[in-house]
Amino acid sequence: MRPYTILNAAMTLDGKIATRTGSSKISNKKDIERVHKLRRELDGIMVGVGTILIDNPKLTAHKLPNEDIFTHERSMKKLNPTRVVVDSRGRTPFNSNVLNSDAETIIATSNKILENEESLSLLKKKADVFICGESEVDLKKLMEYLYHNGIKTLMLEGGSTLNFSMFKEDLVDEVRVCIGPVIVGGDQSKTLVDGDGFDFMESGVQLIMKNSYLLNECLILEYTVKK
Q1: What is the CATH number of domain 4-225?
Q2: 81: which DSSP letter?
Q3: Given the DSSP bridges, would you call strands 153-156 and 44-48 parallel, antiparallel or unpaired?
Q4: DSSP label at 6?
Q5: Whose CA is closest to 115, among 92, 140, 95, 90?
């Protein structure tokens, strides 16, 4: 068993999620609200450690009003999804926003972290550390772990290497993409999915169109993954 997983991302018309400098502001305010609403509806949100190192995100639904905290007496932790960081070597900085007290956090890592006992000890003070895999995180084992720890629905927000790995392991159920009206180019710019890629078109991940609509100047596309 594993969580139902939705890959969500914003990309340029030419398929870039960030420029070579790491600049990644693509979507508009309406789309950001859409994303944060989706975060609040799901049990977990997952990114790779590269996203943490570059953007230092909170990975919470903080762009939405919190009046229901008072009407339902819910804490911030219950309003926000559990944050999952795929970090094979334990590189997540200890002052990262993802390790604050606004939500629960799971650091998924490999046996490589055992080479740095100090880092492992410090991370355990702020997060649940789950070790699976020799030198890379075993994503299938991680998905099983998340499911059995109450994360039945999961948002995948990449980056591009993690996105490919999740597709390669057949662990993605939906794709939701915001296409911003901009072209940036660049062979060093990050695309929605990088990694090794598939050798043939027929080997690629096949999608079925589910929905499409405009949010001001942005186009939202929603697909289910054909199994």
Answers
A1: 3.40.430.10
A2: P
A3: parallel
A4: E
A5: 90
> Residue 71 — pLDDT band, cuts 50, 70, 90?
very low
How far, in Å, CA of 211 to CA of 195, rounded?
27
pLDDT digits (tens, 9 = 90+) for 117-172: 999 999 999 999 999 999 999 999 999 999 999 999 999 998 999 999 999 999 99
Query: DSSP alpha helices (H): ranges in 45-159?
Result: 49-55, 68-72, 76-79, 117-126, 139-148
State the average pLDDT over residues 31-38. 94
Q: Where do the structural domains in the chain lie, given as residue ranges? A: 4-225
Helix (H) or strand (E) holding 108: strand 105-109
DSSP-derived secondary structure for 82-98: EEEEE-TT----TT-GG
Give the model's confidence band at 42: pLDDT under 50 very low, under 70 low, under 90 confident, else very high: very high
Amino acid of residue 143: M
Q: Is 15 helix (H, G, I), strand (E, B) or coil?
A: coil
